[in-house]
Each structure stands twice: as C-alpha cells, then as structure tokens.
Amino acid sequence: MVNSTELEALVNDSKPKHVAIIMDGNGRWAQQRGKIRVKGHHEGVKSVRQVVSSALTIGIESLTLFAFSSENWRRPEAEVSMLMKLFMTVLTREVKKLHKNQIRLKIIGDVSAFSLAIQTKISEAEELTKHNTKLTLNIAANYGGQSDIANAAKQIAIAVKNGDISADQIDDKMLGQHIAMAEQPAVDLMIRTGGDHRISNFLLWQLAYAELYFTDTLWPDFDQTAFEDAIFSFVNRERRFGGTGEQVRAILTKQQ
C-alpha cells in the first residue's frame, strides 16, 4: 500500500499535461431559462475563468478551448456578430489578468477572417504574454481540424517544391511538426460538455491518443468542481494506485 508521499508523486506524474475542451451548451443553457442565446455565451465566460484558474492551480501545462469553429460562421448573423463583440470584450478585459498570472495566450485558427480590430487585439495579447510560463492558454478561433492538417500538408508541399526536402522524407513526425501547437505537449485529455459525443472537427491530429471525457453538463454550469472531476477521471484511468477520490482531489487542488 502506498503512503501519502508516494501517492502524491503518482498523482502528479499521472495528471494530464494538456487538456482540451469543447465548450458546448451555451445556447441551450440560455434557452432553458427563457433568455436569448448570447446570454449563455456571456455566462460561459465565467466558466472559462474557473477552469483556467483550476488548471493553473493543478499545474497543467496547456489548456486549449474551442471558442469558435470554422463552421460557426453558419450560425444566425446576429449571433455571430454578438460572439465577435464578446470575443473583443474578453480580449480587452481578461488579458491583463492572464499576464499577471503568468499565463501565455495563443490563438490557433485562421484569424484573417476576423475584423482588423480583433486581429490587432490578438496580436497585442499574444505579444504581451509570450514570455509567460505557468500555463499556455490556447483559444481555437475560426479553427477546424481538417484545415489544420491541410495547411500542414500545404507547407510540406511547398518545401518539396522548393527543393528543401524530398518526398521520401515526409512521415507522420514531419507532418506533426507543422500542425498547430506542435511545440506543446500532446493533448492527454479532451472534455466535451453539453451531452454530445463527438469531436466536431476539433484537433483531429492532436487527439490521436487522448482520453475522451463527455458530460451532460452545459458549459455555463461547468465549474471548478466539474473540471476537477474530469481530471480525477483521467488520473484514475491512467493509474489505479489505490487512493481514494478525496485523497486524489486534495492533491490535485493543492496550491502550487
């Protein structure tokens, strides 16, 4: 039987380095309460704050949030417009807090489709936080997993055309080096809220060996405790070392 010190070492060794989340259910949360869908997105920002804070405390290295997919442009124009305004507001208000907490912000996806004002805010936020090392917060915005792989293939094709590499040199390792977040740990755990059991074109390459965790909880109701439950589930899958849920939770939430 392991003692408390050994248990803590095992838990810390087993916790995920990179967690990705599909934040689903904002619109349904609002509709269930007789509110317009955008109210759910505003409420969802509070869940983002809680999850980022918890990830920082637990000592996770990378957290990736699916904020806006390349397919989301198909939503009603009014909703897309409100989402863009919310994105702008969050970028303006939250970046200083991220920087204060030594969190690096990265946006993955095709930002060229956004307004120049949003593109400028993204550049400023990434520049301000680029040297922070406690946690990397990746926001997937106008992102699609298939496009990510296609863009990687395009970069390699250009290198072959220019004579920098030969076609014989291309393998999965080389392709992976051109995929988004290649410099970060592989995704260990993918969480999806809202009840659906699919990955919706999210990080198709990066999720190759990830554990998947689905919950019926709608994103605005997904708080710090719900996030810790998902991490505990991952740790339990990875290592069955005889500790109780209470012991593992106490270790995971211990202040770093």
Compact description:
The protein is of the alpha/beta class and about 260 residues long. The chain is built from 9 helices and 6 strands; from the N terminus they run H-E-H-H-E-H-E-H-E-H-H-E-E-H-H. It has a single domain, classed as 3-Layer(aba) Sandwich (Undecaprenyl pyrophosphate synthetase), CATH 3.40.1180.10.
Account of the protein in words:
- With 256 residues, this protein is an alpha/beta fold.
- It has a single domain (36-66, 78-217, 232-252), classed as Decaprenyl diphosphate synthase-like (Undecaprenyl pyrophosphate synthetase).
- It has nine helices and six strands.
- The protein has helices at residues 4-14, 26-32, 37-58, 77-100, 116-129, 145-161, 172-176, 224-238, 245-252, and strands spanning 18-22, 62-69, 103-108, 135-143, 189-192, 211-214.
- Strands 3-4-2-1-5-6 form a six-stranded parallel beta sheet, with helices on both faces.
- Strand 3 (103-108), helix 5 and strand 4 form a beta-alpha-beta unit.
- The longest helix has 24 residues, at 77-100.
Fold topology:
Elements: H1 4-14, E1 18-22, H2 26-32, H3 37-58, E2 62-69, H4 77-100, E3 103-108, H5 116-129, E4 135-143, H6 145-161, H7 172-176, E5 189-192, E6 211-214, H8 224-238, H9 245-252
Parallel strand pairs: 1-2, 1-5, 2-4, 3-4, 5-6
